[in-house]
Amino acid sequence: MPVPQQLEPTRRTSDTDYYEIVQSPATVEIIPGLRTPIMGYNGTFPGPTIVQNPGRRVVVTHKNALSVPTVVHLHGGTTPDDSDGYPTDFVLPAQTYGTFPTMPAMPAMPGMPAMSDPDAVVTRMQRDYTYPPQPRAGTLWYHDHRMAFTGPSVYRGLAGFHIAHDTEEQALPLPRGARDVPLMIADRAFASDGSFMYPAIDPTMRTTPGVDKPWVNGVMGDVILVNGAPWPVMKVDTARYRFRILNASNARTYQLALQNSSQGFTQIGTDHGLLPAPLHQDTVVIAPAERFDVVVDFSGHKVGDEITLVNRLGSDSTAAVMHFVVARATKDSSSIPSTLSRTSPITPSGSMTRRTMKFHRGGQGEWLINDQAFDPSVSQADVPAGSTEIWTIISDFHHPFHIHNATVQVISRDGKAPGRYDQGWKDTVFVNKGEKVQLAIRFSDLKGRFVFHCHNLEHEDMAMMATFRIT
Ligand SMILES: [Cu+2]
């Protein structure tokens, strides 16, 4: 099983690490014997991993060597608005691009006319993205966020890990080094020539957004990739491993379980870092863009044992994810402390602003929030910097709700206590069909224009996104 390479800074100053990434076309071997054209950060899929150490600012210079505009979003990041990857803040390619002489025109789609965004900050060929020191350790990830074309851009490879550490986490005796492994799970479909089969209406990704009709609820593939490899095998020692599981799929939700293991998972963290205390999970249900930080203990196994990570929501080829083969007996000095992280649960109070956000289908097949298609000029919520609000998400379909530049605690589901996958600080919360999920959202103190949206990428591309402003 491949593990994405950690990117080395191009230079370091007293408080900042500088990185450079070229977004470029490449051809890689994913299915043995076949060649798959990708769009990759540094030509790889997943992209290289960026590690952000405590107190360090990170600046990533992204160069666009592709033939289409790109936008980079650090998912889960506390980020100033000019580096957050607002969906019209394009990095234009070198070549003249369609109808984008100076101002980006957003293409028309069902339920949404073509429009311009006069507030977009567009650059050509490159852009510096600045990430201040992150408030908590966490498994963040960076991915493309281009207006109306995020689905095909991520599908073709524009996604990578960004791991933030903090001193609280670093002091713990958790598995580390080669036993702290990020797992990016993503499903893909392949054509017989090895190319990705994304059912785009416009495969050039230049003019017409959207997917063929059978896929409007979300694009799913029949091959499960982990770190870019199909159903990989990982050799492990008889020891504890920390797996930072990211669901980078466009639309597929997984119920992960370990076959031939009586252990299950010890969940230690979620989107925004460690839980207050470890939590045993027999299975983990993970929606698109969510992260689960788990420890799996192989010490009870013998050399030669094989443990399969399965997907109980899958069938046939999507029922297996990857395999672990116990290859070496070893001693293990790691442990899982009973207290992991100090967090303060939010208690909703009468003084907190309350809002309701209804995620639903429109009459022309578009996806809407509170009856509105995405419009950069309309803010659906102006929130004071650093404030906490109570939002109720209502849904007509299953939608993973995601909000930028904020951290979220689940308060209730349908008036009942949060579910077993809702613990800790999150940025992506799965909302089931017909469900009413109440969230406490603590906004960053970095002011500006941001978005919240559905993280089913085909819904997001079809306008299920809204602007909010931190004021
Ligand atoms: Cu959705």
UniProtKB/TrEMBL annotation:
- Assigned keywords, A-Z: Metal-binding, Oxidoreductase
| Keyword Metal-binding attached | yes
Q: What PROSITE patterns does the entry give?
A: MULTICOPPER_OXIDASE2
Annotated Plastocyanin-like domain residues:
28-88, 223-300, 361-470
Q: Which Pfam families match?
A: Cu-oxidase, Cu-oxidase_2, Cu-oxidase_3
Which superkingdom does the taxonomy of this entry point to?
Bacteria
Q: Which family does it belong to?
A: Belongs to the multicopper oxidase family.
Would you tell me the protein name for this molecule?
Multicopper oxidase family protein
Species name? Actinacidiphila acididurans
Q: What is the lineage of its organism?
A: Bacteria, Bacillati, Actinomycetota, Actinomycetes, Kitasatosporales
